[in-house]
Structures are given as structure tokens and as C-alpha cells.
Amino acid sequence: MGEEKVRVLYDFEGVAENGELTIYTDEIITILRKDVGEGWWEGQNDRGEAGYFPSAYVDSETSGSGGAVTDTPPAADSSYFNGSQDASATTYAQESAPAADQWSDPSSQYQNTAATDPWDQGVANTAYSSSYGQDSWGDTTSAQAGGQDEGWDDDWDDDGASTGSSTATTPTSPTTKTMSYDANKSGGTMRKSLNRFSMFVKSGGEAFILGTTKSAGSSQNRVSVTETQDGWSWGPDPAPYKVSVADPTKASKMKGLKSFITYQLTPDNTNKTVSRRYKHFDWLYERLIEKFTTIAVPPLPEKQVTGRYEENFVEGRRQQLQLWVDRMSRHPVVAQSEVFQFFLQSPSDKTWKDGKRRAEKDPLVGGAFFHTVEAPQARLPAARIDTNMENFNRFQKSMDDGVKNLLAVAAESTKKHMGGFKREYQRVGEAFTKLGTTFDLDKKPSSKPLTNALWKTGAAYFEIGKMFEEQPQHDLNELMLKVDEYKGILSTFPDILQSMKGTMTKVRDCQRMVGEGKMSDEELEEVGVRADVITYTTLAEIQHFHEMRVVDFKDIAQHFLKEQIEFYGKIKTTLEESLKNYDNV
After folding, report:
1. How many CB atoms neighbour CB 469 within 10 A?
2. d(CA 152, CA 206)
3. Cβ partners under 8 Å of residue 519, min gap 6
4. How far, in Å, are 66, 554, 557, 584 from residue 551 at the CA level?
5. Does the pLDDT at position 441 exceed 90?
6. Any binding-site annotation on 415?
7. How far is 457 from 585, CA to CA, in rounded Å?
8. In terms of CB atoms within 10 Å, which end of the chain has fewer, N or C?
9. With 0-12 CB in 10 A as exposed, 13-18 as middle and 19+ as buried, what is 295?
10. Taking the domains of the chain in order of start, what are their residue ranges?
11. How many CB atoms sit inside 10 A of residue 555's CB?
12. Non-local CB neighbours of 56 within 8 Å, separated by 6+ positions
């Protein structure tokens, strides 16, 4: 069998320490193996260099068993990849001198769409442009998840490769872990889809509006939307609970040939612990985004090629999964859904496999889910819907900018704490220490107390420098971890808003059909009622987002300020203790 070769479509700068291969456009790569992990292959260039590279960066259509590769590079498939290399979005790193400890955080591989305006750009699908040309809604490239990975036994299904991104693990100090964020990227496992309208149709939204979806089983697991003084909200969670994600443990099977990390999940309403791997989280994520098209399901932390069993990486992954599970268990619809309850409660491999098959055959997903929604009967005026959606779109864009800015400032502050601030305080300490050493040349007893006081002042400033170096793990790391989660949440809303655009477009199409005599007024009324169900669920999700935002950012700010107060209090105490040494001079 001949060698399999592919042509490189995009430059990719690999990280040699992570076993990654740097590749260049038009270069021919010989494939060594494709079973590395989701989105990654291993190959060798014509210089004999071998390593991992993203499969999305090469043209797989030119590969074959000994087949020739044409001289002209094929065009990139823009429906899968947008042609720009995506760097690591969330890398826990430090810019100071190399040391023993390393902590690398999973990073983003999907396009951050939160910064783009789904209302301001032109409609891609001409079937809708005529009826929507007058409004301000539009179409942008989507960050939408694709189908599930059926490779349950993939070696990389727990902490696999980050598709299309290079995740570097930069040395940090032995005692301090800190984060460095690319504020323009969002962490997660979402895939790309160019045409939002086809997504709206594919998910069943259009079929629901037109009344062609099946409602079998919709009498169970009913979901309600109620009107409140702030707008419309999901019905309250009848039995709220919390879930702990703890004790990450390295396990193996097939006599050690396959290794993976397991996490122990314990809901406080059952106190029964279940063991889950990353692949189980990934499967749940796919089920949730397929079932709930108007709910903001945040992306999971990205997969990792190398360093996935290192203690600090595993703990960082556990913290991110804890945030994700917290987010889902706090959602009144997701928390009580059958698939999420199954994820939290299935105790064995057999029940997991049976429940997995049952969940994958759930008929009430996508558009069919709306059959389970009990929405207000009052009809919503189109102008009011437009106003609500445009207002939230502006808010979402502005918040996305604000979140990115906060992450950038926090990352820069972290670097200063680890480098500049530490060095400046230790330079002051060194100056006092050297002065004390000079004064020590005077051996008179009367000079000794001053010499000692100067040395202790120098030691105090060295200690303050060390305190600056370690402080980010107490406040800035926590802030960046939680704010970065919101960057991921915000990236889900362009698809949700675009579903609303598809809904309103279809209603206006039906109105036109009534004028053309192709649809009756009664049929149009039914279309409007069903469209309102989608609208009410979207408004309820927006309201839930705002409610959680207020709670979460209050907690984020309070925790940060308390830690800052304690930090500067320690500095004050250290300086006061140093000052006392001069009382005896």
C-alpha cells in the first residue's frame, strides 16, 4: 500500500515541546497515522520532521493510497474552516524564568462570533432576503456544534487534541500558577457552520412553525414560560440541587494500553456518586445543543494533545468542568431534563449504554422540543420582538467587548504581578540589604541595631515581592476563569438570535403567502402562535442569562475585592513589622 499524502492549506506554527509539527501552505505531508485524536493527525514533512498537526489545515481530498497530489492547491472548504489559524485561547502561563511546575488550560478552536452582529450583516439565503431586507437582522458565520463523535474508545476522547489550535504549556514558578488569555478567543468544543438559515431549517425550527413536526411524548417533561415584572422567564426549578465534580483520577483499560481521567460527580439531592470521563461530558454537550436550540449551552473546555495527565492541568480541567456542570444544574430547564438527569445518575456501563441509546432516539429535540413548552397565550407584536432582540444584541456585543477587555487587563496585571512588580519590590529590598551590609563595616555596637533594621527592611521587601508573585492564584486566576466562562456563554447567542431571525422571516413569508392566496388566515394564525412559542423561549433564556449575570458578577467582584483587601492588608502588616525594628536604633 502506498504512502498517503496531503497538501497543506494553511500555515500552522506547532509547539515543538508538545510534539506538534510546523506546516506551511502548499507543503506536502506524509500521513503517519490519523488515530491521534479528534481533529489531529500525525505526519512527516519532506525534511524528515514529524509531529502532530490539525487535520483541518490540510486538504484531505487530495490524499490517497499512493495517489499523486496535484500541483494546484485545492480551495479550503469555508463551511468547515474559515482559513485563519486559531491560536490558544486560554493558556495558563507565566512569562518569568522556567521552573518545574506547568499548568496548561484547554483552549478555543472555534470562531468567536459574539463580537459579530447577527442583525447588521446581509442575509446569505436569498429565499429570505426579499422579506427581510428592510430590517436590521442579518447573517454571520456560526459557531455551532456538529454531530457527535461515536468513537467511544478513541485514545484521545478524554483529553484529546485542540482542533485547529496550538496549546502551549509554558513553564511557571513552582509555587504559582497564573493565566494568560487571548481575549478575542473563546474556549470550547463547538464546530463551525456557515449558513445559519440552513441550521434553523435543519434543527426543525421551520418545521415546527409550519406544523409538520411530531409531538409524540410531549405531554411529559413539560416546560413553562411565565410573565414576570421583568419580562418572561422560565418556570421555576421545582427541585434545585448542586453537583460537585471531584477526585479526578487517572485510570486505564486494556491492560494499560488506554489511559483516561475519571471525575466523580455527586448531586446533593441524591448523594450518589457516579464516575464520568471527558467523553461522557462531550456526549452530553452534543445532546443538549441538539435538543435545546434556544438555550445557551456553553462550550466545554477544549481537548488537549499533550500534558493531559499532569496534575495541574487535570485540576484546571476539573475546575472548568465544575463551572460547566454548575451552569447546567442552575438552568431550570436543563437541570430537570431527562438527558441531564441520566448523565448524573446512571451508575454502571450497562445502564449508561442503554440510556445513551434512548437519549439519542429522543424525538423531542430541536424544533420538536417546542411541543413541550407551555407559553403565554398573548400574541407578541413583531415590532416589540424586533426591539427586544435588537436591544439584547447590542447588549451582548457590548458585554462581549467588556469581558474581553477585563480579561486582557487581568492577564496584563497578572504578568506584572509575576514579573515587574515582584522585581521592583525585590530591587528595593536588595538596595536596603546592600546598604545594611555597608553599615555593617562599622563594628561599633551602636551601629548594629540600624544595620539589622535595614537588613530586615530588605527582607520585608523581598517578602512583598514574593507576595505579588503568588497573589494571582488567589484573585486574578479566579476572576479570569469565571469571566472566560462568560465569553463562552456569549458566543452561543448569535445562533440563538439567528433562530429568532429565521422564525420572524418564516412568519413574514407566510404573511406574503396569504396575500398571494397560497395560505389561509387560519393557517397564518396557527403559524403565528407556534412562532410565539419560539419567541417566548428565547425571551425566557435572555432573562435567565441576565439573572445569572447579576448573581455571578456580584460574586466575582466581591471575591476579587475581598482578596485584594486581604492582600494589601498583609503588605501593610509586613511594613509595620519592619518599621518596629527602628524603635531600638
Report:
1. 23
2. 33
3. 510, 513
4. 59, 5, 10, 52
5. yes
6. no
7. 13
8. N
9. buried
10. 5-59, 80-410+480-566
11. 12
12. 39, 80, 81, 163, 164
Residue 67, pLDDT above cutoff 50: no
pLDDT tens-digit readout, 309-331:
788 888 989 999 999 999 999 99
Give yes or no for residue 293 having a pLDDT over 50.
yes
Query: Annotated binding residue at 423?
Result: no
Strand ranges (E), 38-172: 40-44, 50-54, 58-59, 90-91, 101-102, 142-143, 171-172
Calculate Rg over the CA atoms of the chain: 28
Q: Can you tell me whether residue 464 is helix, strand or coil?
A: helix
Summary count for the chain: helices (H), strands (E): 13, 17
Please state the pTM of the whole predicted model.
0.69
Nearest residue to 470 via CA among 511, 420, 518, 414: 414
Beta strands in 134-272 (DSSP E): 142-143, 171-172, 180-181, 192-193, 223-228, 231-234, 243-253, 258-267
Residue 418: exposed, middle, or buried by beta-carbon count in 10 A (0-12, 13-18, 19+)? buried
Least confident piece of the model among 14-28, 182-196, 352-366, 468-482: 182-196
Query: Do you know the residue count of the chain?
Result: 585
Are residues 29 and 44 in contact, defined by beta-carbon separation less than 8 angstroms?
Answer: yes
Fold of 5-59: SH3 type barrels. (2.30.30)
Residue 348: pLDDT over 50: yes
Distance CA 226, CA 309 (A): 46
What gap in Å lies between CA 323 and CA 420, rounded to an integer? 32
Question: Which residues lie below 8 Å from residue 523, measured CB to CB, with a gap of 6+?
Answer: 510
Q: Which residue has the cell 466523580?
A: 264
> Does the CA dihedral 555-556-559-561 come out positive or negative?
negative
Q: Which set of grid coordinates corresponds to residue 492? A: 452561543
Residue with cell 515581592: 465
448 is in an annotated binding site: no
